[in-house]
Write a structure and sequence with these properties.
Length: about 450
Protein backbone atom coordinates (compact mmCIF):
# COMPACT_ATOMS: atom_id res chain seq x y z
CA UNK A 1 0.00 0.00 0.00
CA UNK A 2 1.29 3.47 -0.89
CA UNK A 3 2.25 5.51 2.16
CA UNK A 4 2.05 9.29 2.29
CA UNK A 5 5.85 9.32 2.11
CA UNK A 6 5.65 7.30 -1.13
CA UNK A 7 3.12 9.78 -2.48
CA UNK A 8 5.18 12.91 -1.85
CA UNK A 9 8.41 11.30 -3.10
CA UNK A 10 6.67 10.12 -6.27
CA UNK A 11 5.37 13.66 -6.92
CA UNK A 12 8.75 15.25 -6.13
CA UNK A 13 10.31 12.97 -8.76
CA UNK A 14 7.61 13.48 -11.39
CA UNK A 15 7.36 17.28 -11.07
CA UNK A 16 10.91 18.54 -10.65
CA UNK A 17 9.96 22.14 -11.50
CA UNK A 18 7.92 22.28 -8.29
CA UNK A 19 10.28 22.59 -5.32
CA UNK A 20 10.08 19.79 -2.73
CA UNK A 21 9.22 22.44 -0.14
CA UNK A 22 5.98 23.15 -2.01
CA UNK A 23 5.02 19.46 -2.22
CA UNK A 24 5.21 19.13 1.57
CA UNK A 25 3.59 22.52 2.17
CA UNK A 26 0.62 21.74 -0.09
CA UNK A 27 0.13 18.38 1.60
CA UNK A 28 0.15 20.02 5.03
CA UNK A 29 -2.31 22.68 3.87
CA UNK A 30 -4.75 20.28 2.23
CA UNK A 31 -4.60 17.59 4.94
CA UNK A 32 -3.54 19.30 8.15
CA UNK A 33 -1.03 18.42 10.83
CA UNK A 34 -1.25 16.90 14.31
CA UNK A 35 0.44 18.49 17.31
CA UNK A 36 1.92 16.90 20.37
CA UNK A 37 1.03 18.84 23.48
CA UNK A 38 4.69 19.88 23.72
CA UNK A 39 4.29 21.88 20.47
CA UNK A 40 1.21 23.86 21.53
CA UNK A 41 1.31 27.44 22.77
CA UNK A 42 0.43 29.03 26.08
CA UNK A 43 -2.09 31.16 24.19
CA UNK A 44 -1.44 34.86 24.66
CA UNK A 45 0.67 34.37 27.77
CA UNK A 46 3.59 32.46 26.31
CA UNK A 47 6.59 32.90 24.06
CA UNK A 48 4.99 31.50 20.88
CA UNK A 49 2.53 33.31 18.64
CA UNK A 50 -0.81 31.45 18.81
CA UNK A 51 -3.25 30.70 16.00
CA UNK A 52 -5.63 33.66 15.80
CA UNK A 53 -8.43 32.09 13.75
CA UNK A 54 -8.22 35.15 11.56
CA UNK A 55 -11.25 34.42 9.34
CA UNK A 56 -12.14 30.77 8.75
CA UNK A 57 -11.35 27.95 11.15
CA UNK A 58 -8.82 26.35 8.75
CA UNK A 59 -8.95 23.22 10.92
CA UNK A 60 -9.99 19.68 10.03
CA UNK A 61 -12.00 19.23 13.19
CA UNK A 62 -14.36 21.47 15.14
CA UNK A 63 -12.95 23.15 18.26
CA UNK A 64 -14.51 20.66 20.73
CA UNK A 65 -12.82 17.82 18.76
CA UNK A 66 -9.32 19.28 18.93
CA UNK A 67 -8.53 18.10 22.46
CA UNK A 68 -5.73 20.03 24.13
CA UNK A 69 -5.31 22.18 21.02
CA UNK A 70 -8.68 23.76 21.80
CA UNK A 71 -7.41 24.91 25.20
CA UNK A 72 -3.81 25.67 24.32
CA UNK A 73 -3.85 27.03 20.82
CA UNK A 74 -1.48 25.72 18.18
CA UNK A 75 0.97 28.21 16.68
CA UNK A 76 -0.23 30.51 13.88
CA UNK A 77 2.39 29.14 11.51
CA UNK A 78 5.38 26.84 11.52
CA UNK A 79 8.62 27.19 9.61
CA UNK A 80 10.29 24.07 8.19
CA UNK A 81 13.96 23.58 7.38
CA UNK A 82 16.46 20.77 6.74
CA UNK A 83 15.64 17.08 7.06
CA UNK A 84 16.13 14.38 4.41
CA UNK A 85 14.78 16.66 1.64
CA UNK A 86 17.08 19.52 2.77
CA UNK A 87 14.19 21.95 2.89
CA UNK A 88 14.85 25.62 2.53
CA UNK A 89 12.97 27.87 4.95
CA UNK A 90 9.26 27.21 4.37
CA UNK A 91 6.47 29.03 6.20
CA UNK A 92 3.25 27.04 6.54
CA UNK A 93 -0.08 28.12 7.99
CA UNK A 94 -1.31 25.74 10.69
CA UNK A 95 -4.39 23.65 9.99
CA UNK A 96 -4.95 21.15 12.76
CA UNK A 97 -5.88 17.56 12.03
CA UNK A 98 -5.33 15.11 14.92
CA UNK A 99 -5.50 12.19 12.42
CA UNK A 100 -2.85 13.52 10.04
CA UNK A 101 0.22 11.39 9.26
CA UNK A 102 2.19 14.62 9.75
CA UNK A 103 2.95 15.41 13.37
CA UNK A 104 4.88 18.16 15.13
CA UNK A 105 6.61 16.76 18.19
CA UNK A 106 9.69 17.19 20.34
CA UNK A 107 12.54 14.81 19.60
CA UNK A 108 14.66 13.10 22.28
CA UNK A 109 16.96 16.13 22.13
CA UNK A 110 14.01 18.42 22.91
CA UNK A 111 14.01 19.97 19.42
CA UNK A 112 10.74 20.19 17.51
CA UNK A 113 10.56 18.06 14.38
CA UNK A 114 7.94 17.41 11.73
CA UNK A 115 7.44 13.70 11.25
CA UNK A 116 5.67 11.97 8.39
CA UNK A 117 4.59 8.34 8.84
CA UNK A 118 6.71 8.40 12.02
CA UNK A 119 9.95 9.57 10.30
CA UNK A 120 11.43 13.04 10.96
CA UNK A 121 11.38 15.10 7.75
CA UNK A 122 12.09 18.66 8.92
CA UNK A 123 13.18 20.84 11.80
CA UNK A 124 10.31 23.00 13.04
CA UNK A 125 10.58 26.62 14.10
CA UNK A 126 7.71 28.40 15.84
CA UNK A 127 6.83 32.07 15.44
CA UNK A 128 7.95 34.12 18.43
CA UNK A 129 5.27 36.06 20.27
CA UNK A 130 5.41 39.54 18.72
CA UNK A 131 5.88 42.36 21.15
CA UNK A 132 2.68 44.04 19.93
CA UNK A 133 0.59 41.02 21.03
CA UNK A 134 1.67 41.68 24.61
CA UNK A 135 -0.13 45.03 24.71
CA UNK A 136 -3.88 45.38 25.11
CA UNK A 137 -6.30 48.00 23.84
CA UNK A 138 -7.64 50.44 26.45
CA UNK A 139 -10.87 48.42 26.63
CA UNK A 140 -8.92 45.24 27.40
CA UNK A 141 -9.24 43.61 23.95
CA UNK A 142 -6.16 41.92 22.58
CA UNK A 143 -4.33 42.96 19.43
CA UNK A 144 -4.55 39.33 18.31
CA UNK A 145 -8.35 39.56 18.31
CA UNK A 146 -8.61 42.95 16.60
CA UNK A 147 -5.64 42.98 14.21
CA UNK A 148 -3.86 39.60 14.03
CA UNK A 149 -0.84 39.25 11.79
CA UNK A 150 -0.04 36.30 9.54
CA UNK A 151 2.60 35.44 6.94
CA UNK A 152 5.31 35.63 9.56
CA UNK A 153 4.15 39.11 10.53
CA UNK A 154 4.04 40.53 6.97
CA UNK A 155 0.26 40.96 6.76
CA UNK A 156 -2.17 42.48 9.27
CA UNK A 157 -5.38 40.59 8.73
CA UNK A 158 -8.38 42.77 9.47
CA UNK A 159 -11.51 40.64 9.33
CA UNK A 160 -13.68 43.58 10.29
CA UNK A 161 -16.95 41.75 9.55
CA UNK A 162 -16.82 38.26 11.04
CA UNK A 163 -19.90 36.88 9.30
CA UNK A 164 -21.19 36.79 5.74
CA UNK A 165 -24.54 38.03 4.52
CA UNK A 166 -24.62 35.14 2.09
CA UNK A 167 -26.40 32.99 4.59
CA UNK A 168 -27.56 29.38 4.69
CA UNK A 169 -27.16 26.49 2.28
CA UNK A 170 -28.62 28.36 -0.70
CA UNK A 171 -26.14 31.25 -0.47
CA UNK A 172 -22.97 30.39 1.47
CA UNK A 173 -20.02 29.26 -0.59
CA UNK A 174 -20.05 25.51 -0.12
CA UNK A 175 -16.50 25.32 1.25
CA UNK A 176 -16.70 28.31 3.60
CA UNK A 177 -17.09 28.12 7.38
CA UNK A 178 -16.96 31.83 8.24
CA UNK A 179 -20.41 31.76 9.81
CA UNK A 180 -19.78 28.49 11.62
CA UNK A 181 -16.40 29.72 12.86
CA UNK A 182 -18.10 32.75 14.38
CA UNK A 183 -20.62 30.51 16.14
CA UNK A 184 -18.02 28.07 17.49
CA UNK A 185 -15.82 30.78 18.97
CA UNK A 186 -18.82 32.40 20.58
CA UNK A 187 -19.90 29.00 21.97
CA UNK A 188 -16.40 28.47 23.41
CA UNK A 189 -16.61 31.84 25.15
CA UNK A 190 -13.73 33.30 23.14
CA UNK A 191 -13.70 37.00 22.30
CA UNK A 192 -14.83 37.28 18.69
CA UNK A 193 -16.12 40.67 17.58
CA UNK A 194 -18.78 40.52 14.83
CA UNK A 195 -18.19 44.04 13.48
CA UNK A 196 -14.92 45.62 14.57
CA UNK A 197 -15.25 49.28 15.55
CA UNK A 198 -12.99 51.58 13.50
CA UNK A 199 -11.51 53.06 16.69
CA UNK A 200 -10.44 49.63 17.92
CA UNK A 201 -8.79 48.79 14.62
CA UNK A 202 -6.91 52.10 14.65
CA UNK A 203 -5.80 51.58 18.24
CA UNK A 204 -4.53 48.08 17.44
CA UNK A 205 -2.69 49.42 14.37
CA UNK A 206 -1.05 52.06 16.55
CA UNK A 207 0.19 49.36 18.90
CA UNK A 208 1.53 47.33 15.96
CA UNK A 209 3.22 50.40 14.50
CA UNK A 210 4.86 51.20 17.81
CA UNK A 211 6.00 47.70 18.76
CA UNK A 212 6.72 46.08 15.39
CA UNK A 213 10.36 46.19 16.36
CA UNK A 214 11.50 43.90 13.55
CA UNK A 215 9.69 45.94 10.88
CA UNK A 216 7.97 42.79 9.61
CA UNK A 217 4.52 44.24 8.84
CA UNK A 218 4.12 45.62 5.32
CA UNK A 219 0.46 45.30 4.39
CA UNK A 220 -3.05 45.07 5.77
CA UNK A 221 -6.07 43.29 4.34
CA UNK A 222 -9.59 44.49 5.01
CA UNK A 223 -11.90 41.55 4.71
CA UNK A 224 -14.88 39.65 6.03
CA UNK A 225 -18.18 38.48 4.69
CA UNK A 226 -20.02 39.88 1.72
CA UNK A 227 -22.37 42.78 2.42
CA UNK A 228 -25.57 42.38 0.42
CA UNK A 229 -27.65 44.93 2.32
CA UNK A 230 -26.01 47.22 4.88
CA UNK A 231 -23.71 46.98 7.89
CA UNK A 232 -23.72 49.92 10.27
CA UNK A 233 -25.96 51.59 7.68
CA UNK A 234 -23.28 51.31 4.98
CA UNK A 235 -23.02 49.38 1.74
CA UNK A 236 -19.97 47.21 1.08
CA UNK A 237 -17.65 49.82 -0.48
CA UNK A 238 -18.25 52.40 2.25
CA UNK A 239 -18.27 49.83 5.05
CA UNK A 240 -14.84 48.39 4.21
CA UNK A 241 -13.57 51.68 2.83
CA UNK A 242 -14.09 53.59 6.07
CA UNK A 243 -11.39 51.52 7.78
CA UNK A 244 -8.89 52.26 5.01
CA UNK A 245 -9.74 55.94 5.18
CA UNK A 246 -9.08 56.03 8.94
CA UNK A 247 -5.85 54.04 8.63
CA UNK A 248 -4.52 56.10 5.72
CA UNK A 249 -5.35 59.39 7.45
CA UNK A 250 -3.53 58.30 10.59
CA UNK A 251 -0.65 56.41 8.88
CA UNK A 252 -0.36 57.63 5.29
CA UNK A 253 1.35 54.96 3.18
CA UNK A 254 2.66 53.04 6.22
CA UNK A 255 1.23 49.77 4.89
CA UNK A 256 -0.06 48.57 1.53
CA UNK A 257 -3.87 48.59 1.87
CA UNK A 258 -5.80 45.68 0.37
CA UNK A 259 -9.46 44.76 0.36
CA UNK A 260 -11.27 41.48 -0.27
CA UNK A 261 -14.78 42.22 -1.46
CA UNK A 262 -17.39 41.28 -4.02
CA UNK A 263 -16.81 42.27 -7.62
CA UNK A 264 -18.54 45.63 -7.34
CA UNK A 265 -19.63 48.21 -9.93
CA UNK A 266 -16.94 50.57 -11.12
CA UNK A 267 -18.06 53.53 -8.99
CA UNK A 268 -17.73 51.42 -5.83
CA UNK A 269 -14.33 50.15 -6.92
CA UNK A 270 -13.27 53.76 -7.44
CA UNK A 271 -14.42 54.52 -3.90
CA UNK A 272 -12.14 51.78 -2.55
CA UNK A 273 -9.27 53.39 -4.39
CA UNK A 274 -10.18 56.86 -3.19
CA UNK A 275 -10.28 55.61 0.40
CA UNK A 276 -6.62 54.64 0.01
CA UNK A 277 -6.79 50.94 -0.85
CA UNK A 278 -4.19 49.91 -3.41
CA UNK A 279 -4.86 46.20 -4.02
CA UNK A 280 -8.27 44.75 -4.81
CA UNK A 281 -9.20 41.09 -4.37
CA UNK A 282 -12.57 40.36 -6.06
CA UNK A 283 -12.22 36.62 -5.53
CA UNK A 284 -13.66 34.44 -8.30
CA UNK A 285 -13.25 31.25 -6.20
CA UNK A 286 -13.55 28.61 -8.95
CA UNK A 287 -13.34 29.06 -12.73
CA UNK A 288 -15.67 26.40 -14.13
CA UNK A 289 -19.11 27.87 -14.84
CA UNK A 290 -21.15 24.95 -13.52
CA UNK A 291 -19.06 24.63 -10.37
CA UNK A 292 -19.22 28.36 -9.70
CA UNK A 293 -23.01 28.26 -9.88
CA UNK A 294 -23.22 25.20 -7.63
CA UNK A 295 -20.47 25.97 -5.14
CA UNK A 296 -20.79 29.77 -4.93
CA UNK A 297 -24.58 30.18 -5.03
CA UNK A 298 -24.53 33.56 -3.26
CA UNK A 299 -22.06 35.04 -5.71
CA UNK A 300 -24.07 33.66 -8.61
CA UNK A 301 -27.30 35.01 -7.17
CA UNK A 302 -26.18 38.52 -6.23
CA UNK A 303 -23.75 39.19 -9.07
CA UNK A 304 -23.45 36.23 -11.46
CA UNK A 305 -20.32 34.70 -12.94
CA UNK A 306 -20.12 36.64 -16.20
CA UNK A 307 -20.65 40.00 -14.52
CA UNK A 308 -18.18 39.02 -11.79
CA UNK A 309 -15.51 38.43 -14.42
CA UNK A 310 -16.39 41.60 -16.34
CA UNK A 311 -16.04 43.62 -13.16
CA UNK A 312 -12.67 42.08 -12.40
CA UNK A 313 -11.42 43.29 -15.78
CA UNK A 314 -13.06 46.68 -15.34
CA UNK A 315 -11.49 47.20 -11.92
CA UNK A 316 -8.06 47.00 -13.57
CA UNK A 317 -8.86 50.40 -15.09
CA UNK A 318 -9.07 51.80 -11.56
CA UNK A 319 -6.33 49.93 -9.72
CA UNK A 320 -4.05 48.94 -12.58
CA UNK A 321 -3.99 45.32 -13.72
CA UNK A 322 -1.06 44.41 -11.44
CA UNK A 323 -3.03 45.45 -8.39
CA UNK A 324 -6.16 43.44 -9.09
CA UNK A 325 -5.45 40.03 -7.58
CA UNK A 326 -8.51 37.78 -7.48
CA UNK A 327 -8.27 34.65 -5.38
CA UNK A 328 -9.53 31.17 -6.13
CA UNK A 329 -9.79 28.22 -3.76
CA UNK A 330 -7.48 25.58 -5.16
CA UNK A 331 -8.94 22.12 -4.84
CA UNK A 332 -12.68 22.68 -4.85
CA UNK A 333 -12.62 21.96 -8.60
CA UNK A 334 -12.21 18.33 -7.58
CA UNK A 335 -14.75 18.27 -4.76
CA UNK A 336 -17.56 15.73 -4.94
CA UNK A 337 -20.41 15.62 -5.70
CA UNK A 338 -20.11 17.92 -8.72
CA UNK A 339 -16.37 18.47 -9.18
CA UNK A 340 -14.05 17.05 -11.81
CA UNK A 341 -13.01 13.48 -11.14
CA UNK A 342 -10.00 13.61 -13.44
CA UNK A 343 -6.98 15.66 -12.35
CA UNK A 344 -6.08 16.59 -15.93
CA UNK A 345 -9.56 17.99 -16.64
CA UNK A 346 -9.52 20.00 -13.41
CA UNK A 347 -6.12 21.44 -14.30
CA UNK A 348 -7.26 22.29 -17.84
CA UNK A 349 -10.25 24.17 -16.48
CA UNK A 350 -8.28 26.08 -13.86
CA UNK A 351 -5.59 26.93 -16.39
CA UNK A 352 -8.21 28.33 -18.75
CA UNK A 353 -9.17 30.77 -15.98
CA UNK A 354 -5.54 31.65 -15.28
CA UNK A 355 -4.94 32.33 -18.96
CA UNK A 356 -8.10 34.44 -19.19
CA UNK A 357 -6.86 36.79 -16.47
CA UNK A 358 -3.11 36.60 -16.97
CA UNK A 359 -3.37 37.36 -20.70
CA UNK A 360 -4.97 40.64 -19.57
CA UNK A 361 -2.22 41.40 -17.08
CA UNK A 362 -4.22 40.35 -14.01
CA UNK A 363 -2.51 37.84 -11.72
CA UNK A 364 -4.88 35.61 -9.76
CA UNK A 365 -3.55 33.88 -6.68
CA UNK A 366 -4.91 30.98 -4.71
CA UNK A 367 -5.50 29.60 -1.26
CA UNK A 368 -5.18 25.85 -0.81
CA UNK A 369 -8.57 24.44 0.08
CA UNK A 370 -8.94 23.16 3.64
CA UNK A 371 -11.97 20.85 3.83
CA UNK A 372 -13.42 22.20 7.06
CA UNK A 373 -15.77 19.64 8.61
CA UNK A 374 -18.88 21.79 9.03
CA UNK A 375 -19.05 22.85 5.37
CA UNK A 376 -21.01 20.87 2.75
CA UNK A 377 -17.88 20.20 0.68
CA UNK A 378 -15.78 19.41 3.73
CA UNK A 379 -18.35 16.83 4.81
CA UNK A 380 -18.40 15.11 1.44
CA UNK A 381 -14.63 15.41 0.86
CA UNK A 382 -12.86 15.07 4.24
CA UNK A 383 -9.53 14.37 2.52
CA UNK A 384 -9.72 17.39 0.23
CA UNK A 385 -8.39 17.26 -3.32
CA UNK A 386 -5.69 14.85 -4.55
CA UNK A 387 -2.18 16.13 -3.85
CA UNK A 388 -1.33 15.64 -7.51
CA UNK A 389 -3.90 18.29 -8.42
CA UNK A 390 -2.18 20.83 -6.16
CA UNK A 391 1.26 20.05 -7.55
CA UNK A 392 0.17 20.19 -11.17
CA UNK A 393 -1.62 23.46 -10.47
CA UNK A 394 1.64 24.97 -9.21
CA UNK A 395 3.36 23.85 -12.39
CA UNK A 396 0.58 25.28 -14.56
CA UNK A 397 0.58 28.54 -12.58
CA UNK A 398 4.34 28.96 -13.12
CA UNK A 399 4.01 28.22 -16.84
CA UNK A 400 1.02 30.52 -17.41
CA UNK A 401 2.76 33.40 -15.64
CA UNK A 402 5.90 32.86 -17.64
CA UNK A 403 3.98 32.62 -20.94
CA UNK A 404 2.35 35.96 -20.18
CA UNK A 405 5.51 37.67 -19.00
CA UNK A 406 4.24 38.26 -15.46
CA UNK A 407 6.18 38.32 -12.22
CA UNK A 408 5.00 37.70 -8.66
CA UNK A 409 2.11 39.94 -7.61
CA UNK A 410 2.71 42.92 -5.31
CA UNK A 411 1.91 42.79 -1.62
CA UNK A 412 2.88 39.17 -0.98
CA UNK A 413 6.43 39.55 0.24
CA UNK A 414 9.42 37.99 -1.45
CA UNK A 415 8.92 35.04 -3.85
CA UNK A 416 11.01 31.91 -4.22
CA UNK A 417 11.65 28.76 -2.23
CA UNK A 418 13.45 29.69 0.97
CA UNK A 419 12.18 33.30 0.82
CA UNK A 420 8.38 33.20 0.66
CA UNK A 421 6.25 34.09 3.68
CA UNK A 422 2.83 33.62 2.10
CA UNK A 423 1.54 30.77 4.19
CA UNK A 424 -1.83 29.53 2.87
CA UNK A 425 -0.61 28.23 -0.46
CA UNK A 426 2.76 27.55 -2.08
CA UNK A 427 2.37 29.73 -5.14
CA UNK A 428 4.95 32.23 -3.87
CA UNK A 429 7.38 29.42 -2.98
CA UNK A 430 7.29 28.30 -6.62
CA UNK A 431 8.05 31.60 -8.36
CA UNK A 432 11.55 32.77 -9.25
CA UNK A 433 13.34 34.60 -6.45
CA UNK A 434 13.43 38.39 -6.70
CA UNK A 435 13.16 41.23 -4.21
CA UNK A 436 9.74 42.19 -2.89
CA UNK A 437 7.57 43.95 -5.44
CA UNK A 438 5.76 47.08 -4.40
CA UNK A 439 2.51 48.46 -5.64
CA UNK A 440 2.92 50.02 -9.06
S1 LIG B 1 -18.42 35.26 0.02
FE1 LIG B 1 -18.35 33.02 0.20
S2 LIG B 1 -16.20 32.60 0.85
FE2 LIG B 1 -16.59 34.78 1.23
S3 LIG B 1 -17.26 34.87 3.37
FE3 LIG B 1 -19.15 34.76 2.10
S4 LIG B 1 -19.65 32.58 2.01
FE4 LIG B 1 -17.50 32.76 2.70
Amino acid sequence: MQTRTDLIEDLMARFPKVPPEAVIKEDLLRGGVAFDDSALTDNEDGEVKPKSYFIFSFDHRTLPELGTAALRRPPEEIVLTGGPYQLRRTVVSVRVNPQSPYRVQADADGMLRLTLDGRPIADVGLPPMPEYYRHKLANGKSVMEVAPTIQWGYLIYLTVFRVCQYFGAKEECQYCDINHNWRQHKAAGRPYTGVKPVDEVLEAMEIIDRYDTTGASHAYTLTGGSVTSKVDGLGEADFYGRYAKAIEERFPGRWIGKVVAQALPREDVQRFYDYGIRIYHPNYEVWDKRLFELYCPGKERYVGRELWHERILESAEVFGARNVIPNFVAGVEMAAPHGFTDVGEAIDSTTEGLEYFMSRGITPRFTTWCPEPTTPLGKSNPNGAPLEYHIRLLESYQATMERNGLTSPPGYGPPGAGNAVFSVSSFMDCLPAQSDTTVA
